[in-house]
Amino acid sequence: MSHSFIRLLGHRHKTPQPPAAVLAVALLTLAVMAPAASAKTVTLHIFSRQTSSTFVDPQGHPVRPNTPPAVGDTFDNTGVDYAGTHKHHAAKPDGSDHLRCTITGMTATGATALCNGQIAIGGSMLLANDEMLSLSDAGPPTPINGGTGIYRHAHGLLTPTDIGNNTDFTIKVTY
User: Fold this and answer.
1) Closest residue by Cα to residue 168 from 52, 90, 91, 85
2) Which domain holds residue 20?
3) What SS3 state is found at 104?
4) What DSSP line would sit under 49-92, residue for residue?
5) Which residues does 21 contact at the CB level (< 8 Å), separation at least 6?
6) Are 27 and 52 found together in one domain?
7) Collapsing DSSP states into helix, strand and coil, what is residue 123?
8) Which of 47, 69, 114, 154 could form a disulfide with 89, with the two C-beta atoms 3.0–4.6 Å apart?
9) How far apart, in whole angstroms, are the C-alpha atoms of residue 86 and residue 88?
């Protein structure tokens, strides 16, 4: 019994390994033959119907309406999204959005804020992560700097147009 055990250890049948050069050529051939992923640029028009809006101080207490923002205040807005604009849009929503900004400073033209936003469309999301925005009466254009699903690695620009408490988004995005 011990003899056969020694024979198995001493005389293993080895599978020949291809040289590294053969592997490198095979990988290079696959890389050249694989179709290159081409970036796609689209312009999306989305109508966002606001579903909630909160504005709190640094301690989490609600800020009264018409109170000027202060450094440390945070606002959260959410909306349900429809393809199209406020004048002509789909009957049923196909997405949602969220924006959270914390006021970081004040200037003569208004507040500056660190913001994070998400727009969910189908099973994917467009992201605006850690963007410093200058807030004024008109919503600022917001860089898109990431995404999930089909929008993975997305980049572009979201331009909001406020319509009362609601918003039309024009989003030019490459993904």
Assistant:
1) 85
2) 2-33
3) strand
4) EEEEEEEE-TTSPBPPTTPPP-TT-EEEEEEEEEEB-SSSB-SS
5) none
6) no
7) coil
8) 47
9) 6
Running DSSP on this structure, what letter comes out for residue 151?
Answer: G
Co-location of 18 and 72 in the same domain: no
Kindly report, residue by residue over 132-172, the tens digit of the pLDDT: 998 876 678 999 999 999 999 999 999 999 999 999 999 99
The Cα–Cα gap between 94 and 46 comes to: 10
pLDDT (tens digit, 9 = 90+) per residue, 1-43?
Answer: 333 222 222 333 343 444 444 444 444 443 434 444 689 999 9
How far is 162 from 168, CA to CA, in rounded Å?
A: 6
Structural domain tally of the chain? 2
Cβ–Cβ < 8 Å for 159, 144:
no
Which DSSP symbol is given to 150? G
Q: Is the same domain home to 25 and 62?
A: no
Q: Residue-wise over 100-113: b if at least 16 C-beta within 10 A, else e? A: bbebeeeeeebbbb
